[in-house]
Amino acid sequence: MSAVADQPAYRWTCATDDAAFAARDGAGLLAFRDRMWLLGGWNPSDKEHFPQICNSEVWCSEDGADWEFVTHAPWEGRHTAGYAVHDGRMWIVGGDANQHHYQSDVWCSEDGERWEQVLDDAPWAPRVLHYTVAFDGAIWLIGGQSMPGFAPAEERFYADVWRSTDGGTWERVADDQPWAPRGLIGGSAVLDGRIWLLGGGTYDTPEHPTRIFRNDVWASADGVEWEQVVEQTPWAPRQYHEVAAWDGWLWVLEGHDGTGNRKDVWHSPCGIHWQELPGTPWLPRHAASVCVYDDALWVVAGNNMTPDAWRLDRA
Predict the structure, then answer these.
(1) Which domain holds residue 18?
(2) Is 14 a domain residue?
């Protein structure tokens, strides 16, 4: 891959290394109504704050340093769910299988405190680890898998795409896509009028005990027709990483590569040519919480199990 020309200078700043919320990974992070919102999360070693492995806490912050507890939401505690802002509301789409069943529900909120269950049993269930994007006036659910080792279900690895404008009615718009079945992608990336699918993989199951890690790039303008932009990027294959679109670039941050957590950060204007942003100051992690807020790219918490919050700005 050739280098990206004229890379802007960027600077990481630690907003806090000891936030008011307990350490966690897989929490949702959304920019909504001039705040960041942290939703749920996983920490099985903290029985005080996560008595059922995951919790349903909602926290918010205006500056990433001071975090305010909002509520214990009525949805069952979860992590690595689908998180999106759509139609003036925050959305949680599905969840995990840590309670030995699939969380196949959909919830939304206009204020972060009051939550409405829009759907109890979605037609795309049972699945977890799906990629969720708000795009073109709809919520899109992409890929994912079942996890028979955690909750009963036929083993399935999905390469399909579902779409909903209201969170209650879902249409499968594409099946058996040319990209290999995958999930384990956090955040979302929409750039230049296209949804971007960046890396990801599959979690191990009893029948397929080896996890798969990918570093290919795909893009779609309608969620139906997908183009492989590049087969292999210079960033290592990974899962449980985060993706974003910010400052005119696609971003890929941290993740797990099969040997351990990562702390590398990469960006590209087109999905083909990638450049690493050197000198990442935060701890290696996967399943962090990432969003774009206040003209900055934010990384909050994750599997480093430290309640920290970092922002990336142009220097």
Answers:
(1) 10-314
(2) yes
Which amino acid makes up residue 116? E
Q: What is the pLDDT of residue 185?
A: 98
Contact present, 120 and 108 (Cβ < 8 Å): no
Q: Is 45 exposed, middle or buried (0-12, 13-18, 19+ CB in 10 A)?
A: exposed
**Residue 5 pLDDT:** 53
Residue 96, in any domain of the structure? yes
Tokens 């230049």: give the residue. Answer: 192
Q: In this structure, are residues 226 and 243 in contact, taking their beta carbons and an 8 Å threshold?
A: no
**Rounded Cα gap, residues 62 and 60, in angstroms:** 7
Task: Read off the tokens for 131.
Answer: 């990629």
Q: How deeply is 175 buried, as exposed, middle or buried, from its count of CB atoms within 10 A (0-12, 13-18, 19+)?
A: exposed
How many residues does this entry show for the chain?
315
pLDDT of residue 7: 73
| Residue 280 located in a structural domain | yes
Residue 272, in any domain of the structure: yes
Among positive and negative, which fits the CA dihedral 58, 61, 64, 68? negative
The answer to whether 43 and 24 have CB atoms below 8 angstroms apart is yes
SS3 state at 36 = strand
Question: Structure tokens of 200?
Answer: 């990801």
Q: Give mean pLDDT in consecutive 10-residue pieces for the chain, a chain of 315 residues.
A: 65 98 98 98 98 98 98 98 98 98 98 98 98 98 98 98 98 97 98 98 97 98 98 98 98 98 98 97 98 98 98 97
Domain at 126, CATH number: 2.120.10.80
Number of domains into which the chain is organized: 1
